[in-house]
TrEMBL record:
Needed co-factor(s): Zn(2+)
Name by which UniProt lists this protein: Fpg/Nei family DNA glycosylase
Reaction equations catalysed: Hydrolysis of DNA containing ring-opened 7-methylguanine residues, releasing 2,6-diamino-4-hydroxy-5-(N-methyl)formamidopyrimidine
Pfam families linked to this entry: Fapy_DNA_glyco, H2TH, zf-FPG_IleRS
Residue ranges occupied by any FPG-type domain in the UniProt entry: 240-274
Protein family: Belongs to the FPG family.
GO biological process: base-excision repair
Top-level taxon of origin: Bacteria
Organism (species): Streptomyces daliensis
Record keywords: DNA damage, DNA repair, DNA-binding, Glycosidase, Hydrolase, Lyase, Metal-binding, Multifunctional enzyme, Zinc, Zinc-finger
Length: 289
């Protein structure tokens, strides 16, 4: 799933390639992809892009006509830039293609939105204001914003009787962090994913805040300038614990462990994060005795 660093890299990639260019046509291929109907998708035809922004994991492509094409890539969605799109309109079917956008001009360039798998969650909105998108309206603060201070983080966690792993992934608490980077952040902070947020003292909150900032900023820098098609592999190569079950921890050498759930899993280092005790690999919060 694309998270804040990858979406930020896509934002920069699209800002460079779309700004000042005009939409020739936008064609939805998958019925499920479009989540709004007013303004209609074809209202973008003839509009010129003025820039790309990011709201958490949402991409926001603004036009000079006051419209915004907002995209959420969800778990299996991706944006694929095409230097030369075929002239013939794509056929609806069972393939991964969900939407195609053509830019005006002789080059024939533009981009495809694709989604793998059977669970279709890729979402596209055409709105006059990004806050009209429900997912954007409920977002918590951006962790890379200058005003995201340790005091702000402490306020978000105060009184929360929830595990810190879940809170980091909650877009209504902090925008942009998903399953992979929450694992990475907690490893840097040397914190158990099962730690209750309400139990964190000022020192631990400061360490968590520092880990959030350093982990995300380093990932953004690694992704900066990487072509859209290579961002997924770049993300995987930069992860230290997420997706590394059975491999040695790069800090202490202990074996990275995993806890599996119905639709996801988390990875962690026992020595660095849980005092050497492995977490139960089932839906329970207690440590193995």
């Amino acid at each position: 799933m694309p998270e804040l660093p990858e979406v930020e890299a896509l934002r920069g990639f699209l800002d460079e390639r779309l700004t000042g260019h005009t939409v020739a046509r936008v064609l939805p291929v998958a019925v499920s992809v479009l989540k709004t109907y007013d303004p209609p998708l074809d209202a973008l035809h003839g509009q010129t892009f003025t820039g790309a922004a990011r709201h958490g994991k949402f991409l926001d492509l603004a036009t000079d006509g006051g419209l915004h094409l907002v995209v959420h890539l969800a778990r299996a969605g991706w944006l694929r830039w095409q230097d030369s799109l075929p002239d013939a309109p794509p056929r609806a079917g069972k393939g991964p293609l969900a939407l195609r956008l053509y830019l005006a001009g002789p080059e024939g360039d533009g981009f495809d939105l694709t989604e793998a798998g059977t669970q279709k969650r890729l979402a596209v909105y055409v709105v006059r204001d990004p806050s009209e998108v429900p997912g954007i309206a409920r977002l918590g603060p951006d962790p890379l914003a200058e005003d995201f201070t340790p005091e702000v983080l402490a306020g978000l966690l105060r009184g929360q009787r929830h595990r810190i792993k879940g809170l980091l992934r909650d877009q209504g608490v902090i925008a942009g962090i998903g399953n992979a980077y929450s694992d990475e952040i907690l490893h840097v902070a040397r914190m158990s994913p099962y730690k209750l947020a309400s139990e964190l003292d000022e020192k631990r909150i400061a360490a968590l805040h520092a880990a959030i900032g350093s982990t995300l900023r380093e990932a953004v820098e690694r992704s900066r300038g990487v072509a859209a098609g290579k961002l997924k592999s770049e993300k995987k190569s930069g992860l230290r614990v997420h997706g590394r079950t059975g491999e040695p921890c790069p800090v202490c050498g202990d074996t990275i462990r995993e806890v599996s759930f119905a639709d996801s899993s988390l990875q962690y280092c026992p020595t660095c994060q849980t005092g050497g005790k492995p977490l139960a690999d089932r839906r329970m919060s207690r440590l193995l005795k």
